[in-house]
Amino acid sequence: MSFFIPAAHAQAANAAPPGGELFQIFFLVGLFVLFYFIAIRPQRKRQKEHQELVSNLAKGDEIITTSGILGRVAKLDDTYMVVTVADKVDMKFQRLHVHAVLPKGTLKNIGTDA
User: Fold this and answer.
1) How many Cα atoms within 13 Å fall on the side-chain side of residue 26?
2) pLDDT of 46-86, one tens digit each?
3) Domain segments of the chain: what residues?
4) In the chain, count of helices (H) and strands (E)?
5) Over 70: is that where the pLDDT of 4 sits?
6) 62 burial type by CB count under 10 A (0-12 exposed, 13-18 middle, 19+ buried)
7) Going by C-beta distance under 8 Å and a sequence separation of 6 or more, which residues neighbour residue 63?
8) Which of 20, 32, 75, 109 could form a disulfide with 82 if both were Cys (CB 3.0 to 4.6 A apart)?
9) Mean pLDDT across the chain, nearest whole number?
10) pLDDT, average across residues 10-30
């Protein structure tokens, strides 16, 4: 059994240099900061822009929904809106499903008469 004792002393002599734990902490903090700037910050920016778009909707705006339906806003509520997609065809959507507000006249240019 005394054969293993010198090997144990040799391992203790080659121990990791001091400060290794500090490096690991800085590495984890740096990794979180990188993740924040790559993933979290841009997503929050897009979420804020979408919330602003939804809150600025007005009657008569030409929109496209997340499902790809084009139409003109006919009536607005706090959480819902009525979109006219064709003559005498109205659909009700949640406001948060608006993907984009189109420039005025877009629906005429693409051939829909909403």
Assistant:
1) 5
2) 999 999 999 999 999 999 999 999 999 999 999 999 999 99
3) 5-54, 58-109
4) 4, 5
5) no
6) buried
7) 57, 70, 71, 72, 73, 83, 98, 99, 100, 101, 102
8) 75
9) 86
10) 74
Q: Which residue has the tokens 């139409």?
A: 71
Cβ neighbour number for residue 98 with a 10 Å cutoff = 20
Task: Examine the pLDDT at 32 and tell me if it is beyond 90.
Answer: yes
Q: How far is CA 66 from the centre of its chain?
A: 14
Alpha-carbon separation of residue 86 from 8, 67, 73, 98 (angstroms): 83, 16, 12, 18
- Distance between the two ends of the chain, CA-based, in angstroms? 90
Among the four given CATH numbers 1.10.10, 2.60.120, 2.30.30, 1.10.390, the one describing domain 58-109? 2.30.30
Q: Is 71 helix (H, G, I), strand (E, B) or coil?
A: strand
Q: For residue 12, how many other CB atoms are within 10 A of its CB?
A: 8
- Burial degree of 71 (CB within 10 A; 0-12, 13-18, 19+): buried
